[in-house]
Each structure stands twice: as structure tokens, then as C-alpha cells.
Amino acid sequence: LSERLQDSLKKIKGQATLTEANMDEMLREIRLALLEADVNFQVVKEFIANTKEKALGQDVLGSLKPGQVVVKVVHDELVELLGTSVSELDFSRKPTVIMMVGLQGSGKTTTSGKIAKLITKKYAKKPLLVAADIYRPAAVDQLKTLGQQLNVPVFEKGTDISAEDIVKQAMAYGQENQHDVIIVDTAGRLHIDEPLMQELQNIKEITNPSEILLVVDALTGQDIVNVAQSFNEHLSITGAVLTKLDGDSRGGGALSVRHITHVPIKFVGTGEKLDAIDLFYPDRMADRILGMGDVVSLVEKVQDVYDEKETMKTFNRMQQGTFGLDDMLEQMHQMRKLGPLSGIMKMIPGMPKLPNINDDDTDKKLKQTESIIYSMTQAERRDPSILNAKRKERIAKGCGRNVADVNRLIKQFEQSKLMMKQMGNLDPTTGMPTQKP
Ligand code: GDP
Ligand code: MG
């Protein structure tokens, strides 16, 4: 899957602009990738249409590699669909009732235990677990066992009593014993049916829950859409939990659930153990669905920091031969933000090899250079050739250094101007020479 995307990337890479044709090829691959990740086909269709529009409108000039722009647009689109930010539980009401719903085997009981553990540790809550799945005696035992492991009380009345009566009693018990969170583990079915939905609606009415969390198995496949739709229609869920992400699933179900219900995904389950639960991070999930996290983080780094307009401005000045000290300083700042200078050089297309880069000294030198340049007038910065002995002395005094330092800076500038002149002959979008020497 990610191999295919990488191949498409390679094809686009090295071309100066994105054409409709090569975009289409890339998006076809992404479409297949999403379908393979079990994203619902309708969701995929809309996603591709949106992404195409955005990518075509993007200015790829100045980007280091145009193909990365497409991946970034796709990634950002995914994050937006998945919810942008992390969503936590709503504890604003006392007691906070959390009702767990979902198909049989989706992970309701396990996740109830996980949440009980998490909120005990993280928020110092005093939860009560309620065994409201009365259709399988084993279900009650399972929750009791979990409660013992966690040292969290479990309210249970066996299976000869209605679920509605159990939760009524549990609410009273919770109040008496000052439980600030009541987690209701409900019954599931292999398939959705009306009696179950009716029972869940009754429980909702009795407990007035702050959260109704739909638990879905990440391995559900295309049917996840119907499950999400059904539960949401009947119960107006407040959030979802995607379980079994420790398996092979790429997590495409997260997209489908979001698309259908628009509720936040609050947790992901990553194993059978009781601490195998995590908040849901949309950007991580986007990386997972695409299967190319490294590429994406590189794109973001480059795009965030290496401001395109500044780069273009500098390149234009190089080509016009009007590269001045302010430009040099600007460049030093941009590069500093990217990380160690020696590493950055390798990322810039066409950058000639520089022999004496000492990363440890770079910060100190940058500060020195700054102080000297800031002591110059605009005219001097634009054209350092006007710097005579008198001016140099004034500048040295102004920044508390000596004339030798100023001379060193001018020498450095001349070298960098020479280098820039070489680079000015390179096309900034491709890093290729614009004319053969
Ligand atoms: P319920 O019927 O909805 O209550 O589902 P259970 O909580 O009983 O879970 C069904 C099975 O899935 C059990 O064997 C759990 O151990 C397993 N399970 C639940 N969550 C996860 C998870 O995040 N990862 C893995 N690998 N297994 C899970
Ligand atoms: Mg259960």
C-alpha cells in the first residue's frame, strides 16, 4: 500500500509543476490505498474530490519537491476529516455517566475496564462499573474479574433482572457511595436489532449519560458505516472508540465513523491489556492510514519553516545580483530553524558543498553576525561595498566588537554572495541549472 504511494511520489518528483494528468495518477493510487484501508467507498469518493480541488489550487513554486505538496494536502485533508484535535471525556456533570454501546465482541467490556483504570490514574476519579449485559452470564463475570484486577467496584445483580432495573439501582448505589463516574457496560448483538436499541434507549433515559461511546472494532470493514449510522440514529452518540488497532487494520474505519456521525473519536484500543488504551490523535491516524509518516513529517518541517515567499524573494535577488546582508541574515535565520546546518545543506537542491561547517559554533556566529548587521544602515546592508574604514569603525563601536570582526563578516558575505551567484543560476523549484554552463 504505502509502496504504491511511494512509487507514485517518485514519478511526480522532479517535475516542476503538478499537471492535472500526474495529479490524477497520484490520486488514483491514494483512492486505492484508502479503499484497501477499509474506508467506505462513498467517503473515499468525496475525499478524493476535495483533495484534488485543494491540490490543484496550491502554489507549488518554491517547494523543494512538488510531489510532497500532494502528500501534504492529502495528509491535511485526512487530519481535518478525522477531527483536527484530541477530544477528551466530558466530566462536567456529577456524576458523569459513561454508557458503552456497540456490537457484540467490539470491545465494550474491555474498554469499560480500560477507561476505569485510565480515569482513576489520570484524573483521580472514583468510578463504578455497572454490569448491564444480562444476556450472557459470562459477561457479568468478565466485568467482575476486570473490577477485581483494577480494584474498582462492580455493580451487578446477575442476569435475572432487566437491564433497566440494574441501571436504576446502580445510579442510586453510585450516589450513595460517592462515585463520580459511572460506567455502564451494555449488551451487544452480532447484528443490530430493534429490541436491543429499545433497551439502550431506555438505559439512556434512566441514566442521562454525559457520554455515549460507540465501541467499534477497527477490523469491521465496510459494514462499520451501517453500525455507526444505526447506533447514532437511535442514541445520538457523543463519541467513538476504535478498538483492536494493534492488529493489521490501517484504521480506515476511523474515517468512516467520523464521516457518518461527526462525533469525535475519543480513544483507541491497542491491545487486550487494561492499559492498552490511548487518546485519539488525528494526525497520527492520518499517517497510519497513508502508511507514510516519515515523508509527511519531512514535508511539514520543510513547509512550516522554509517560508516559500522568502525563498523566492532571496532567489530573485540572487538572480538580479542584488543580494544584500539582510538577505544573508534572513537565510541564516531560516536555516537555523530547520536544524543543524550541516544537515540542512543536504536538503537544499543544488546547494554547493561547504567545507567548514561546525554546527556547535553556528548559534554563536549567528548572534555575532546579527549584532554587526543590526548596527549598519539600510544602505550599508544593501550594498556592503560602501563600507569604508570610518563606517566600519562606527559599526564596530555600535555592536561592541572590533573592526576585524566587521571585516570577517564582509568576507563571509562575499563568499556567500559568490555561492548565491552559482545558485542563482539554478531553478528554485527544481534545483536544476536553468542554463548549461
Ligand atoms: P464486548 O462484547 O463488546 O464487551 O467485547 P469484549 O470487551 O468482551 O472484547 C471482545 C474481545 O476483544 C476480547 O477477547 C478482548 O480481549 C478483545 N479486545 C478488546 N479490545 C481489544 C483491543 O484493543 N485489542 C485487542 N487485540 N483485542 C481487544
Ligand atoms: Mg461485553
3D architecture notes:
- This protein has 437 residues and is of the alpha/beta class.
- It folds into 3 domains: 2-85, Four Helix Bundle (Hemerythrin (Met), subunit A) (Up-down Bundle); 96-280, P-loop containing nucleotide triphosphate hydrolases (Rossmann fold), CATH 3.40.50; 306-424, 434 Repressor (Amino-terminal Domain) (Orthogonal Bundle), CATH 1.10.260.30.
- 58% of the residues lie in helices and 9% in strands.
- The protein is built from 19 helices and 8 strands.
- The protein has helices at residues 2-12, 20-36, 41-57, 66-82, 108-123, 137-150, 163-176, 194-207, 224-235, 252-261, 282-290, 293-305, 308-320, 325-338, 341-347, 359-374, 378-382, 389-399, 403-424, and strands spanning 96-101, 127-132, 154-155, 181-186, 211-217, 239-243, 265-269, 277-279.
- The chain has an 8-stranded mixed beta sheet with strand order 3-2-4-1-5-6-7-8, with helices on both faces.
- Strand 6 (239-243), helix 10 (252-261) and strand 7 (265-269) form a beta-alpha-beta unit.
- It is elongated and about 100 Å long.
- The chain binds guanosine-5'-diphosphate and magnesium ion (MG).
- Part of the signal recognition particle protein translocation system, which is composed of SRP and FtsY.
- It catalyses: GTP + H2O = GDP + phosphate + H(+).
- It is found in: Cytoplasm.
- Its main location: cytoplasm.
- InterPro entries: AAA+_ATPase, P-loop_NTPase, Signal_recog_part_SRP54_M_sf, Signal_recog_particl_SRP54_hlx, Signal_recog_particle_SRP54_M, SRP, SRP54, SRP54_GTPase_dom.
